[in-house]
Amino acid sequence: LRSTGRPIDANIELWNTPSYIPTKFSVYCEDGQEQPFHTIIETPNHPKTLAVFNTEGQEFPFEVSVVSTDLGSAYESLAQETPDLVQGGQIKSYVFDASVESIQVLLRTSERNMKAMIEVTQGPNDDNQVIELDATVGHQHPFYTVIQTPGAANTLRIINQNTVEFPFDAYVLPYEIVTDKAAEVDMGSGGKW
């Protein structure tokens, strides 16, 4: 999902049959040009349809691209990493400095449902991006996204919205890192952010 600098507010649903929606999520981006939304939706077995709804209104249009990647599962690429276990009701926070241009996030369960919220902030109570997801079987339909984090330091929060009986694994890693000195933010006193 991408816009011309305007907010994005959308609902995305994967339909296997008219009455079975195994995964759905809502996405809010403050600036859809600077922080477009990218995700890989795993679609095992069955025929499927992907539905994308603009919930913001016609004043805030956005572009959608849906492409078959023919890639393996997201878990295969991160299997060697150690995940954080996020218990039901728990909040996990991750802070990334200005050199991290994007973050990859994989949320996955073992045969259980998954309800989570992901927030990206650049200051107190400044949600630049919010993703709420619901998957009936988080093992068959894990959630993988690459979140753009341009500018200053960013905090990523993952909130398990289920009860304690429904934990999930969270893989959170930098995806793109800028290594040149121009990317560092000078705070004016010689200290780097």
Reconstruct the topology from this structure:
Blueprint: E1 8-15, E2 23-29, E3 37-41, E4 49-54, H1 74-78, E5 84-86, E6 91-96, E7 100-108, E8 114-121, E9 127-135, E10 143-148, E11 154-160, E12 168-177
Antiparallel strand pairs: 1-2, 1-4, 2-9, 3-10, 5-12, 6-11, 7-10, 7-12, 8-9, 8-11
InterPro entries: DiatomPyrShell
Describe this protein with a few key phrases.
single chain; 193 residues; mainly beta; Jelly Rolls; 7-stranded antiparallel sheet; 5-stranded antiparallel sheet; 1 helix; globular; disordered C terminus; DiatomPyrShell
How would you explain this protein's 3D organization?
With 193 residues, the protein is mostly beta strands. The protein has one helix at 74-78; strands spanning 8-15, 23-29, 37-41, 49-54, 84-86, 91-96, 100-108, 114-121, 127-135, 143-148, 154-160, 168-177. The strands form two sheets. Strands 4-1-2-9-8-11-6 form a seven-stranded antiparallel sheet, with no helix packed on it. A five-stranded antiparallel sheet has the order 3-10-7-12-5. Strand 1 (8-15) and strand 2 form a beta hairpin. The protein is globular and about 45 Å long. Mean pLDDT is 83; it is low at 185-193.
Short description:
InterPro entries: DiatomPyrShell (IPR057491). With 193 residues, this protein is an all-beta fold.
Which consecutive residue ranges, at least 5 long each, have pLDDT under 50? 185-193
The CATH class, by name, is Mainly Beta
Order of helices and strands: EEEEHEEEEEEEE
| Arithmetic mean pLDDT | 83
**Strand coverage percent:** 35-45%
Give me the side-by-side strand order of the main sheet.
4-1-2-9-8-11-6
- Rounded to the nearest angstrom, the distance between the terminal CA atoms is 30 Å
Q: What would you call the structural class?
A: mainly beta
CATH topology descriptor: Jelly Rolls
Number of spatially distinct domains: 1
- Please report the number of helical segments: 1
CATH architectural group: Sandwich
**What would you report as the Rg, rounded to the nearest angstrom?**
17 Å
Helix content: under 10%
Could you describe the largest sheet, including whether it forms a barrel?
7 strands, antiparallel
Overall body shape: globular
Please give the number of β-strands. Answer: 12
